[in-house]
Amino acid sequence: MPTRIPAPVAVATPDAAAQQAEAARAQWLHAHPDWAFQGRVAITKGRNGGSGRIDWTQRQRQYEVQLSAPVTRQSWRLIGDSHSEAGRLEGLEGGPRDGENAEQLLLEATGWEIPVNLLPDWVRGLVATDAQEPERVDYDAQGRPHTLRQMGWEIEFQDWYAPSDGRPALPRRIEARNGDAKVRLLVDAWSVPAP
């Protein structure tokens, strides 16, 4: 299992070496667009919420997300494209649903507000490239994002896996908030195949 490193306190501006290291980390991650993670997720919207397992597989801009809630024994599979934003949600009563916006589709079907089209970047500790410029980014002493505010969401990177086997540091624990919507993610394992 990769070594964990806690996210240090945010700094105003990391030093030049940390900035260079973060640029190299971001470049490596963009050069490896196929990846996957397994973990646990907790989602709340106001007084409603749920938690369960999440398995995310990303191939270029296409993603497949398997969500399962052990308490309710429900599971969903969301297949989408972070560029076109379209998606298909399976595992619902009445059969699969298709929509032009996967986030809206997920919200209407489950009540969960999850920025799935931005998560492929955020979950790897990157600013979302297919969105507006971030309103704010605070960095840790290693130059990695500590908190990021983009598209109305505030993302806090609370814990990181240390670099291992040629792979750069990747987030272990993330919390994203937008109003009364909150998504907490704990990544148990990353898989980033060689290009």
UniProtKB/TrEMBL annotation:
<keyword id="KW-0653">Protein transport</keyword>
<dbReference type="GO" id="GO:0009279">
    <property type="term" value="C:cell outer membrane"/>
</dbReference>
<keyword id="KW-0564">Palmitate</keyword>
<keyword id="KW-0449">Lipoprotein</keyword>
<dbReference type="InterPro" id="IPR004565">
    <property type="entry name" value="OM_lipoprot_LolB"/>
</dbReference>
<dbReference type="GO" id="GO:0015031">
    <property type="term" value="P:protein transport"/>
</dbReference>
<keyword id="KW-0813">Transport</keyword>
<dbReference type="InterPro" id="IPR029046">
    <property type="entry name" value="LolA/LolB/LppX"/>
</dbReference>
<dbReference type="Pfam" id="PF03550">
    <property type="entry name" value="LolB"/>
</dbReference>
<keyword id="KW-0472">Membrane</keyword>
<comment type="function">
    <text>Plays a critical role in the incorporation of lipoproteins in the outer membrane after they are released by the LolA protein.</text>
</comment>
<dbReference type="GO" id="GO:0044874">
    <property type="term" value="P:lipoprotein localization to outer membrane"/>
</dbReference>
<comment type="similarity">
    <text>Belongs to the LolB family.</text>
</comment>
<comment type="subunit">
    <text>Monomer.</text>
</comment>
<keyword id="KW-0998">Cell outer membrane</keyword>
<protein>
    <recommendedName>
        <fullName>Outer-membrane lipoprotein LolB</fullName>
    </recommendedName>
</protein>
<keyword id="KW-0143">Chaperone</keyword>
<keyword id="KW-0732">Signal</keyword>
